[in-house]
């Protein structure tokens, strides 16, 4: 439908239509949101409406530290005190279950395998909760973060919660310093990243074609997912899905990972729906970028000029050239 939604009318209609059947609160549940308009069928709020349909989600509309953002490299501040990120796997491989959630490809490590990160901008130890994939219908889009206005075919997000302060993800996500997300851009190449290859080879990815499909993977080494660099960019932001809590430290790795064109194609063939419903590609599962406002983007990339007048030293002209295949050391 190519109309401008009048939300109050829609919600009124919605309440009238459903009030006899069930209370509206049961529909305003945590999964009642979407990235894109559905062609046919009932109204589901797209990103510009997330903050309006549910008062518990109002940060999505009025928050001032939201994610994702467009990383403008000219706004980055070199911070010589940023140490390398530390990944602790205990030297063990992990098992995990890969899901089609209807919105993302999601890999959840099983509880027996603890993987945590610390160091870098993090003051605490954070345990890996989920590996989540965002990707586009075209090669020029699909990442949530942009680099100087440029999108990438996809973005891997490794979502961790603060295990020093909180008992679990759900408690951490709504509290200060709760979440740390390591984000890695996905680009296309002849060869794919070893970890992503385990998830995205044809035999595996086709097991989760439809919503709620799940598939168990064993012997995964999360270290394989990390590109070979200690360079990153970091800022304070939010989770990128409702309720948009502003509790996330973002760490964007300064090198991409690669998947093949075929694997990207397989991702685009995943459906947001159950098998008995109409096929709707999961691709373009991205929230639009949000304003940076008064925040700093810090980096441990030494581009020689140091800026201390955070947040926006517009005179800085770093040598940073973004994610190129050859990368940086
Ligand atoms: C982080 O993971 C390592 C390796 O599994 C483990 O030895 C360490 O105790 C963990 N740290 C915390 C705070 O749980
Ligand atoms: C998370 O931890 C809190 C506080 O300990 C607890 O009340 C809650 O039930 C836990 N939630 C889950 C999903 O385990
Ligand atoms: C950053 O690079 C400049 C120029 O190469 C160098 O003089 C400076 O010592 C470096 N700073 C740090 C903290 O590495």
UniProtKB/TrEMBL annotation:
Superkingdom: Eukaryota
One MF annotation (Gene Ontology) recorded for this entry: zinc ion binding
SUPFAM superfamilies documented for this protein: Carbonic anhydrase (SSF51069)
One Gene Ontology term from the biological process aspect of the record: one-carbon metabolic process
Residue span(s) of domain Alpha-carbonic anhydrase: 31-301
Keywords assigned: Signal
Signal peptide stretch: 1-21
CDD domains: alpha_CARP_X_XI_like
Cross-referenced InterPro entries: Alpha_CARP_X/XI, CA_dom, CA_dom_sf, Carbonic_anhydrase_a-class
Keyword Repeat attached: no
Reported function: Does not have a catalytic activity.
Entry similarity comment: Belongs to the alpha-carbonic anhydrase family.
Name of the featured protein: Carbonic anhydrase-related protein 10-like isoform X1
């Amino acid at each position: 439908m190519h109309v401008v939604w009048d939300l109050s009318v829609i919600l009124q209609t919605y309440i009238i239509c459903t009030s006899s059947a069930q209370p509206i609160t049961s529909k305003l549940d945590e999964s009642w949101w979407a990235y894109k308009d559905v062609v046919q069928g009932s109204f589901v709020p797209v990103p510009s409406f997330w903050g309006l349909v549910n008062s518990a989600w109002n940060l999505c509309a009025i928050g001032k530290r939201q994610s994702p953002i467009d990383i403008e490299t000219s706004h980055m501040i070199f911070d010589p005190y940023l140490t390398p990120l530390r990944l602790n796997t205990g030297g063990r491989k992990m098992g995990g279950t890969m899901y089609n959630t209807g919105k993302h490809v999601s890999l959840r490590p099983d509880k027996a395998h603890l993987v945590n990160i610390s160091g870098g901008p993090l003051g605490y130890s954070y345990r890996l909760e989920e590996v989540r994939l965002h990707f586009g219908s075209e090669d020029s889009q699909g990442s949530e973060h942009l680099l100087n206005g440029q999108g990438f075919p996809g973005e891997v997000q490794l979502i961790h919660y603060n295990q020093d302060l909180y008992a679990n993800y759900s408690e951490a996500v709504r509290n200060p310093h709760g979440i740390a997300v390591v984000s890695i851009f996905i680009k296309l190449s002849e060869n794919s990243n070893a970890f992503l290859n385990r998830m995205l080879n044809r035999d595996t990815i086709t097991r989760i074609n439809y919503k709620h499909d799940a598939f168990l993977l064993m012997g995964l080494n999360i270290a394989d997912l990390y590109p070979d660099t200690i360079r990153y960019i970091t800022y304070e932001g939010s989770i990128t899905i409702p309720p948009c809590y502003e509790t996330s430290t973002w760490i964007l790795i300064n090198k991409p990972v690669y998947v093949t064109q075929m694997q990207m194609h397989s991702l685009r063939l995943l459906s947001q729906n159950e098998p008995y419903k109409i096929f709707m590609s999961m691709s373009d599962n991205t929230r639009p970028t949000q304003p940076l406002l008064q925040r700093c983007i810090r980096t441990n990339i030494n581009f020689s000029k140091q800026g201390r007048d955070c947040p926006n030293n517009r005179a800085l002209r770093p040598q940073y050239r973004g994610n190129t295949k050859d990368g940086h050391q």
